[in-house]
Write a structure and sequence with these properties.
By secondary structure, the chain is an alpha+beta fold. The protein contains 1 helix and 3 strands.
Length: 110
């Protein structure tokens, strides 16, 4: 990305050919990918065949393991957008806070 006070162009590098191409651009959107990175989580957390976490209740962030909440796009294999991930992260924080207030590991998920 190059420019003065604002973005003016991109320099794109083709890693296969080694060629650099300049493209005029005044803005840029980063896509973070469409693969859910959940392979670091314990096997006890149920996932769909595509790796996304299964939720135990529609509209909530509860997973198959009490105290572990699906925040962001690790459970959203339909929209997979950052804005959805941010909203689901907020929902997971609220679910976690309520779960802890209800007794945490000694309480059932509602």
């Amino acid at each position: 990305v190059t420019g003065g006070d604002r973005m003016e162009k991109l320099i794109l590098h083709n890693s296969a050919s080694g060629e650099d191409v300049e493209m005029a651009a005044g803005s840029l959107f980063f896509a973070i990918g469409h693969n859910s990175v959940t392979n670091f989580l314990p096997a006890e957390i149920e996932t769909h065949p595509n790796g996304y976490l299964k939720l135990t209740q529609p509209g909530r962030t509860f997973t198959s393991v009490p105290g572990i909440f699906a925040a962001g796009d690790v459970s959203d294999h339909v929209y997979r957008q950052a804005v959805v991930a941010a909203g689901r992260g907020a929902a997971a924080a609220i679910d976690a806070e309520r779960w802890l207030a209800a007794g945490g590991f000694g309480a059932a998920q509602e």
